[in-house]
Design goal:
alpha+beta, 3-stranded antiparallel beta sheet, 11 strands
């Protein structure tokens, strides 16, 4: 459980644990210890996975049912084996094996043909196969109950790390993939393929790596200070100024300064400069990052009044 945005308790995960005896030979000795296996189901992850699974089942059912459509450009299946192959291909494409039930029905319709130009009258037979399809609700619900489960391992005793504490520690862990995502995407956008020389590509990667460290440090310092103060920061989310967060990203902290403008007016006798006054939110961000507002005002020699 954790505290939600409105102060209410929110269930984020559920699970259980069991002990597992472990051993490892180190040199001539065998070391023995007991490892705790934590079986945890993330509520949000399970909900997202369940929605995706239900969507795949619905798409598979719709495409299988569409095999019965007749008309121009629509393939007509005359044999059971042909339509079964098409149905199985759809089921495999969406990964819903054992979640979809279908039945194939062959149809034979006699079609009398009159005698014509010496040809005797005969009866032709129109052959086609239809498919009935529906979802297996029992199997689908059983599959949904299996979603979202993960197994963690720790040798920490329960007294120092409970199951709830282990879940929260895992959710707050540092993920190097996030930094790599920042490096390849916004705001750094590493694209050395457009650089012609190898030394330029090396320099670009080194420069953006420094910028990545700055972003990571900025975010760490801001979150650490808010945690120490047991405070939250509001005003970072456009369209929702009252929304608060105790874990702001570096990108959102920097976006709060995007409306700053430096105006320079050059006259015959002097040059006037004006820089946008810091808002309350901007001053608060500088405060939690450990910066003085003078660091900002020193950027401009004349900032008392706009020109």
């Amino acid at each position: 459980m954790r505290e939600g945005p409105k102060g209410e308790l929110e269930l984020i995960a559920e699970g259980y644990e069991y002990p597992m005896a472990m051993s490892q030979k180190v040199g001539e000795q065998v070391q023995h210890w007991t490892e705790r296996r934590l079986v945890v189901r993330s509520v949000r992850h399970a909900q997202a996975a369940a929605a995706a699974l239900r969507a795949r089942v619905a798409q598979a059912i719709a495409q299988i049912a569409a095999l019965n459509q007749r008309g121009r450009g629509k393939k007509r299946f005359e044999t059971v084996s042909a339509i079964r192959q098409a149905v199985v291909a759809i089921i495999q494409r969406y990964g819903v094996h054992d979640l979809v039930w279908f039945r194939l029905t062959p149809h034979v319709t006699p079609h009398p043909v009159r005698a014509y130009r010496g040809q005797p009258a005969r009866v032709d037979h129109d052959r086609h196969v239809t498919v009935e399809v529906c979802g297996d609700e029992a199997a689908l619900e059983a599959a949904v109950r299996r979603l979202g489960w993960r197994v963690y391992g720790t040798n920490q005793p329960v007294e120092s790390l409970s199951l709830a504490q282990a879940v929260l520690a895992y959710r707050s862990e540092y993920q190097v993939e996030r930094s790599l995502g920042r490096l390849k995407g916004r705001p750094l956008s590493l694209t050395p393929m457009y650089v012609q020389r190898d030394d330029h590509a090396t320099g670009l990667i080194r420069l953006l790596s420094i910028a990545l460290r700055v972003l990571t440090l900025l975010e760490f310092v801001g979150r650490r200070q808010l945690a120490a103060e047991e405070a939250k920061l509001a005003g970072l989310y456009a369209g929702n100024p009252r929304r608060e967060t105790a874990r702001p990203t570096a990108e959102r902290l920097l976006e709060a300064f995007q409306d700053i403008t430096l105006t320079i007016v050059k006259g015959p006798q002097q040059t006037d400069r004006h820089i946008t006054t810091l808002s309350t939110l901007q001053q608060r961000i500088l405060e939690i990052l450990g910066f003085s507002s003078e660091l900002y005002t020193r950027l401009c020699t004349v900032s008392s009044e706009p020109p």
